[in-house]
Amino acid sequence: MIRGSVYERTAARTALALRLHRRTPMTEALCVYDLAAELGVDVRFTDTPSLEGMYVRDNPAVILVTVHRPVGRQTMTCAHELGHHRLGHGTLIDGYLENPGTGRSIEERQAYVFAAHLLMPRAAVIHGFEARGSRNSDPSADAAYEVASWLGVGYSALLYHMHAGLGLLSSRRARELADVQPAEIKERLLGQAPVHDVYIAGPNWIGRPIDLKVGDDLLAPSESHFEGACAARTARGHQAIRPGIGRLSASDGSWSSFVRVSRREYVGLAAYRHLEDAE
To answer: N or C: which end of the chain has fewer CB within 10 A?
Structure first.
């Protein structure tokens, strides 16, 4: 059952219908930047600290996303602005807010619900935890972080949606998990203090490429093999070292994922963020 007002339920159904129309399985993660490009919407990263995101209703439509936010927040912002586009809203500017899911106009609330259900549909959230051997009603903080990274959203955004949007988490468990900081989860996973973000690759990563930024760590099974020059081998997996596209796969060929690396705080058209640097 979809929660919320009639306006919010309409937004959620619009997001799920878009997945069905694009033939994206409900159990898979998707890349919102690739989806926007398929829909003919230009997404640009901009160096504007006071901006969260902006939707310009034009031909073609344009979405602006600031580079001054964590990667999960950027993804949610892009999906939020895409919601304005699909719901027929006019040009809108979204400034920075600590909690974008509450206290907004009907149009803003609709766009938030659209983004949450587009990126985190119930089936994908449940599948993500089950595939990692965890119960979605009582997951560990590490499992919640891993699922959030796979879906491309922030740790707190996943917890909020699981509780308020999907009813999968009790308020008590959501608060307990929210008290665990992503920084300590990343340090525990990596075995040392991370410089940037940490991702976990393997057979459970399905539906979208693994998108990294230079300096991010990618944990992978020891028998995995990486093709390409955008990442270098480390003791626990690989680290993104330069823009480009590579491929991570199991030595027995049982699974593989494309890996795309972009510059940190890249400014420009999203479609070009993985272009290799000129020698």
So the answer is: C
What is the CATH code for 193-272? 2.60.40
| CA pair distance 43, 173, nearest whole angstrom | 36
Unique residue bearing structure tokens 């491929």? 247
| 235 contact partners, CB below 8 Å, separation of at least 6 | none
Tokens read off for 100: 């974008």
Phi, psi values for residue 67, rounded to 5° = -85, -10
Chain centre to alpha carbon of residue 40: 20
pLDDT of residue 80: 96
Cα torsion 136, 201, 141, 217 to 10°: value is -160
Give the per-residue pLDDT at 118: 98
Residues of the chain with CATH 1.10.10.2910: 6-119
Crossing angle of the two packed helices 182-190 and 141-151, in degrees rounded to 10: 90
Confidence band of 98 (pLDDT split at 50, 70, 90): very low
Rounded distance between C-alpha atoms, residue 117 and residue 194, angstroms:
30
The alpha carbons of the chain give a radius of gyration, in whole angstroms, of 18
Comma-separated ranges of CATH 2.60.40 domains in the chain: 193-272
pTM of the model: 0.93
The percent of residues in the chain predicted with pLDDT above 70, rounded, is 95
Collapse the DSSP code of 232 into the 3-class scheme (helix H, G, I; strand E, B; otherwise coil) and give the result.
Answer: strand
Q: Phi and psi dihedrals of 237, rounded to 5?
A: 160, -115
Environment class of 232 (CB within 10 Å of its CB; exposed 0-12, middle 13-18, buried 19+): exposed
Does the domain formed by 6-119 have CATH 1.10.10.2910? yes
In 3D, which of 63, 48, 56, 57 has the Cα closest to residue 96?
48
